[in-house]
Amino acid sequence: MVPVLIKGQIKNKATVHEYVQNIAKHLKISRFKKPIVITFSKKLTEASGLCSYDYGIIEIDISKGEFTFMEMMQTLAHEMIHAKQFLRKELDASQGQWAWKGRSAEGYKYKNQPWEKEAYRKELQVFSKCFPFHLPFTN
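User: That's the sequence. What structure does it adopt?
Assistant: Structure tokens below.
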């Protein structure tokens, strides 16, 4: 089981924790030992979620009350896909430049970035398969 730390004010922390474990298992990253830190914050300005290239740090925007709990969970699925990409070294930014599967990935426009295409393509399927609908949650 991957270690998970949930920070910030979010209802249903136990549900979120189980959800992250389910995603990690589904994406085959559950045996990695570095903790995944998920922060629910009002600090993000341009995105609803962010996964740092230091792969274990994910931020989910909770500002303005614009997002429902379930929309935040779908965003979390998207960001967990990025965490998988970093963990499996598919996506790398450690040398100061983006690389995708060993090739330079500089110059891609956002909508053409292969890592974003994968995350958008898979996020709904990962959310639907991994969210613990059997647990109680409030919006």
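Strands lie at 4-8, 36-41, 49-51, 57-61, 91-92, 99-100, 103-104.
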